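Below is a filled-in request sheet from our internal design queue. Each sheet records the structural input a requester submitted and the sequence that came back. We keep these sheets so that new team members can see what a complete request looks like end to end.

REQUESTER: design group, bay 2
PRIORITY: normal
MODE: inverse folding
CHAIN LENGTH: 653
BACKBONE (tokenized):
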């Protein structure tokens, strides 16, 4: 097989570690397929999952993909730390190291964090706002399959053709064909454009869903904070991702068709790419962080058994962060010489964004103050987040001071800050949301004891990994070096950091084990409200039925379900109010559309233009056929809904 790959793709370098990781991913996917099909025929997998347009199932598929990609990006991280554990390391060569840190950053941002966020949006938002579905169910499925096939295309680079190696930011001239003649950067450029299309579609979908499909009586100021965070995040996605798409498309034209948008020798402007990238890049930080803020707002109110303190201030701070995030991008390249006036403006705007973020920290603390706190695993991630994000925010203000940034920017201090924010803020939040909404997805809770073991390994490992990197930066260790000599004073700190990284890996393994263990052993709870929740999703059975609500709810207060319970309303439904419901029909069109984009992208990567054209023809044909599909809904009869609700003990009369 290796000889065949070498003949077909001469530039391929087979990397045992990456192939092993990819083989593990394949085994994980096969294990999921086995679980899904254990008691059913294979046709059930196609009918119920691959062709589904149900937002809840799409959310679960996003979640599975995100966890698989977290494993894949985590393997890269462990390889990097193994290489740097001791001086003069030979575990990775310089070219291999460049590939690994490029793919690690790309996978974690685009193929782990983004789908994890979209998973929780799909699972919680329609239920939380009292809707039966998202606004555009078919587009929702298209978004997922575009992401899935883009992830497949990007991961193929580890085995076929060579990985991208210019860093996850892909700055020119490092990406120019003259300096980087392989196909690795083609994988990066094309896969990210495909998944970017899906991300923009998801942003549009949830923006419309939240603005137009809320339950009767649920004004914007009565929405749960997670719904607010989804609303502002969707607006960020819609306005930020096109800038990245343009930058990637222009770079692709330079590489594949000989244009010179970013080629200095022919009058191009590499700094234009840098600006376009970070016009997307800093809003992207908040595209990742704001959903975590929304998750923590729900978790802290539920497990403090109190109404969220300062709701209006929390909403205002979300909006303020969203607006300010568009005016800070230049702080990512202070050292490139933008000029004193420009640097001063963006330094001040960067410091200002800390104010609404600080508002949230105080509001969460005041919510817990005097509350009856229940230290579930979801709440522990919240408690760990607060001090972690405070450190990340404080070091961010340090980096916003332009003279200081000249010293910190190209050092491991910045690496530590970046991970402090994205892991301590985003990943902690996503894990909290995973434990919080897991019962709603599957009808049982994850094992709390095992979850606490995973929590402590991961959090302690996190601090052991990244706190020494602040010190390494202050001691002069620069970014993107693949090894270092003896006598620099960096050895002990790097070794400690590597030990911490492996502790984080152990925490992740315990979490995955807990998922498998809980699936086999935990009791099912179809009552739907194991946490004594406050928002509408907890009024439904777990897992929620296809139609979500047999009768759409009416809302009078902000914590709608909590107020209903306090008023003695148990969520029982009068039989006379149940009517037939029209729901979207499953369709293979999104899957086939994603497959066609994959074929077109693979053809473009290797300049097989006949394959690329065939793939785009497939895209056109599928879009046209889907446009004229007039039978894309089916009716669920009222009697079937009544029987289902009666079986759950939710029907009156």
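RETURNED SEQUENCE:
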């Amino acid at each position: 097989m290796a000889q065949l790959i070498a003949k077909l793709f001469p530039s391929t370098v087979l990397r045992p570690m990456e192939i092993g990781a990819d083989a593990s991913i394949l085994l994980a996917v096969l294990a999921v397929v086995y679980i899904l099909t254990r008691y059913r025929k294979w046709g059930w997998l196609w009918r119920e999952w691959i062709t589904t347009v149900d937002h809840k199932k799409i959310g679960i598929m996003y979640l599975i993909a995100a966890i698989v990609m977290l494993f894949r990006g985590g393997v890269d991280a462990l390889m990097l730390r193994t290489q740097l554990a001791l001086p003069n390391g030979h575990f990775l060569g310089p070219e291999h190291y460049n590939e690994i840190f490029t793919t690690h950053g790309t996978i974690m941002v685009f193929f782990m964090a983004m789908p994890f966020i979209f998973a929780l949006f799909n699972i919680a938002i329609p239920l939380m706002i009292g809707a039966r579905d998202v606004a555009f169910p078919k587009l929702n499925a298209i978004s997922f399959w575009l992401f899935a096939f883009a992830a497949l295309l990007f991961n193929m680079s580890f085995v076929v053709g060579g990985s991208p190696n210019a860093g996850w930011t892909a700055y020119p001239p490092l990406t120019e064909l003259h300096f980087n003649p392989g196909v690795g950067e083609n994988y990066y450029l094309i896969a990210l454009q495909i998944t970017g299309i899906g991300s923009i579609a998801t942003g549009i979908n949830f923006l419309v869903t939240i603005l137009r499909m809320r339950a009767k009586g649920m004004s914007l100021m009565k929405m749960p904070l997670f719904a607010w965070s989804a609303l502002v995040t969707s607006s960020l996605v819609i306005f930020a991702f096109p800038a990245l798409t343009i930058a990637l498309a222009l770079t692709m034209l330079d590489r594949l068709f000989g244009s010179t948008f970013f080629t200095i020798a022919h009058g191009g402007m590499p700094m234009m790419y840098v600006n376009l990238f970070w016009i997307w890049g800093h809003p992207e930080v908040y595209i990742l962080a704001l959903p975590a803020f929304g998750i923590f707002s729900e978790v802290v109110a539920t497990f403090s058994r109190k109404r969220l303190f300062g709701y209006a201030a929390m909403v205002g701070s979300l909006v303020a962060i969203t607006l300010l995030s568009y005016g800070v991008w230049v702080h990512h390249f202070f050292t490139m010489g933008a000029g004193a006036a420009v640097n001063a403006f963006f330094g001040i705007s960067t410091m200002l964004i800390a104010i609404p973020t600080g508002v949230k920290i105080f509001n969460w603390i005041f919510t817990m103050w005097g509350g009856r706190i229940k230290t579930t695993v979801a709440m522990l991630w919240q408690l760990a987040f607060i001090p972690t994000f405070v450190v990340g925010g404080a070091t961010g203000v340090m980096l916003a001071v332009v003279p200081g940034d000249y010293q910190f920017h190209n050092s491991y201090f910045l690496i530590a800050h970046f991970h402090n924010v994205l892991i301590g803020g985003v990943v902690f939040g996503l894990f909290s949301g995973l434990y919080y909404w897991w019962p709603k997805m599957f009808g049982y809770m994850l094992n709390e004891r095992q979850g606490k073991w995973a929590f402590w390994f991961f959090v302690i490992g996190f601090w052991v990994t990244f706190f020494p990197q602040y010190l390494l930066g202050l001691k002069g260790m620069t970014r993107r070096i693949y090894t270092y000599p003896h006598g620099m004073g960096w050895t002990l700190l790097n070794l400690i950091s590597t030990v911490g990284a492996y502790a984080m890996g152990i925490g992740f393994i315990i979490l995955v084990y807990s998922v498998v263990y809980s699936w086999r052993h935990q009791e099912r709870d179809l009552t739907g409200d194991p946490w004594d929740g406050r928002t509408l999703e907890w009024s439904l059975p777990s897992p929620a039925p296809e139609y979500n609500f047999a009768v759409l709810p009416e809302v009078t207060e902000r914590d709608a379900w909590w107020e209903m319970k306090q008023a003695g309303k148990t969520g029982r439904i009068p039989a006379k109010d149940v009517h037939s419901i029209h729901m979207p029909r499953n369709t293979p069109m999104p899957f086939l559309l994603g497959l066609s984009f994959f074929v077109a992208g693979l053809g473009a990567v290797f300049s097989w233009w006949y394959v690329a054209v065939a793939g785009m023809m497939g895209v056109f044909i599928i879009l046209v056929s889907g446009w004229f599909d007039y039978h894309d809904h089916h009716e669920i009869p009222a009697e079937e809904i009544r029987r289902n609700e009666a079986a759950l003990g939710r029907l009156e009369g």
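SHEET NOTES:
- The chain has a mean pLDDT of 90.
- Residues 86 and 223 are 52 Å apart (CA to CA).
FILED BY: M.R.
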